[in-house]
Design a protein that fits this description.
69 residues; little secondary structure; globular
């Protein structure tokens, strides 16, 4: 159970290399971010979870590029 003030650690490295979300998670495959590519799906062929790649998360240090959307 989490209580107010408890620290929470999110392992970004593990999140972005989850083998149940990524095909060959240790390889650099730019096509996995192209929604028309079959590499954008999970190994089981399902749509990936939107939070399976979150290098910047949110808050004051959110990705600079998000301001241009």
């Amino acid at each position: 159970m989490l209580r107010k003030g408890d620290p929470i650690i999110i392992g970004i490295t593990h999140l972005c290399n989850n083998p149940s979300e990524w095909i060959e998670p240790e390889k650099f495959i730019p096509e996995r971010f192209d929604m028309a590519s079959p590499m954008s799906l999970t190994p089981s062929g399902q749509k990936r979870n939107v939070f399976s790649f979150s290098p910047f998360l949110g808050g004051s240090r959110i990705c600079l590029g998000m301001t241009f959307v």
